[in-house]
């Protein structure tokens, strides 16, 4: 072995030992509260990726879309056409608030979505429940954050994962979450006049 | 209508008009160079979500995993068991560098993965090609960044989307990318002793 290769092997062996030691302390299992927020892309996409993971593992899951057509029609079509046995899909919202322009109706729809969400989370058969774009409903106070936090703290079954997405996640939600990722926008093709495209954005 | 409801409707109508005006200027279509980077979670998960979107739309796609078992075995199993007609899947790497501890072998594997990636990108039938964890191969200089940048700039078919993931994306890659998202770690359950769990992390 050359000196360089040997140094590399030694360095990596040390790194592996350190990593294995750390990982050996991570033995707990629990249902996580996961939040995807930030202005960047990938919040819903990564959440739907987790739903596909559950499908792959045969774990029953459920999705409530608080905002219809959160640009994820591809995933919805795929789940509805192939995987309804493993994933319940409920699209409760009617569109972004600036599309409906009707606050009373938006509030009613968000409330109905939240009631459905609670029902799905309480059902222990669901191993993961995705509340897509709920942060928007919370931000407009259609669903009070205190109600969401209290429900998750007191009624979520211990082993159920709940994933909440949308910009501007409320601090109180981040406080109780186990795993929070902020998707930060570094560069976006809209800036150079490119429209939303199939496969990338929906 | 109450005053409050009317104010809301007017405000949202304005917002919609402004948004529609902006969106009407976004008419271009092109194959994007998409980068998911940062220390947070969701880089590969969101990229695989885009692959599932392509599958949903019947768009042929391909995946090259530069690091084997980048914690996404669920997606791989699902694609290999159900969607090989629409998505080619190549796992070329053998593990993280600290697992293999062999620089020569890591370099050979990364080079082979990059050769496969070029072949898949050149094939115009593929509408999206995901190079999962390539940023790690670039960072260790197993694949020179200049070679990747030049290939994408000169040989990528105009309408093909290429998605590159992994921490520490090289500045030269960010420079030529159309869409860059940094997944930022806000909170991680490892910190409280919880291990990687099915459905969430793999």
UniProtKB/TrEMBL annotation, chains A, B:
Pfam families: Co_AT_N, CobA_CobO_BtuR. It is an enzyme of class 2 (transferase). The keyword Disulfide bond does not apply. Residues 1-21 are annotated as: Disordered. One of its GO terms (cellular component) is cytoplasm. Required for both de novo synthesis of the corrin ring for the assimilation of exogenous corrinoids. Participates in the adenosylation of a variety of incomplete and complete corrinoids. This is Corrinoid adenosyltransferase. It comes from Oceanicola granulosus (strain ATCC BAA-861 / DSM 15982 / KCTC 12143 / HTCC2516).
């Amino acid at each position: 072995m050359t000196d360089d290769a040997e140094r590399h092997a030694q360095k990596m062996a040390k790194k592996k030992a350190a990593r294995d030691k750390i990982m050996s302390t991570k033995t707990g299992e629990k249902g996580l509260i996961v939040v995807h927020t930030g202005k960047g892309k990938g919040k819903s996409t990564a959440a739907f990726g987790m739903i596909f993971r559950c499908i792959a593992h045969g774990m029953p899951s459920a999705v409530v879309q608080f905002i219809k057509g959160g640009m994820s029609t591809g995933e919805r079509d795929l789940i509805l056409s192939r995987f309804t046995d493993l994933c319940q899909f409920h699209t409760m919202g009617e569109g972004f608030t600036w599309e409906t322009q009707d606050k009373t109706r938006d509030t009613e729809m968000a409330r109905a979505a939240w009631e459905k969400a609670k029902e799905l989370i309480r059902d222990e058969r669901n191993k993961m429940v995705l509340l897509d774009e709920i942060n928007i409903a919370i931000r407009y106070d259609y669903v009070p954050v205190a109600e969401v936090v209290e429900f998750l703290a007191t009624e979520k079954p211990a082993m159920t994962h709940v994933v909440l997405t949308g910009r501007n996640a409320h601090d109180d939600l981040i406080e109780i979450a186990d795993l929070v990722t902020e998707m930060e926008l570094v560069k976006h093709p809209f800036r150079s006049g490119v429209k939303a495209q199939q496969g990338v954005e929906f």
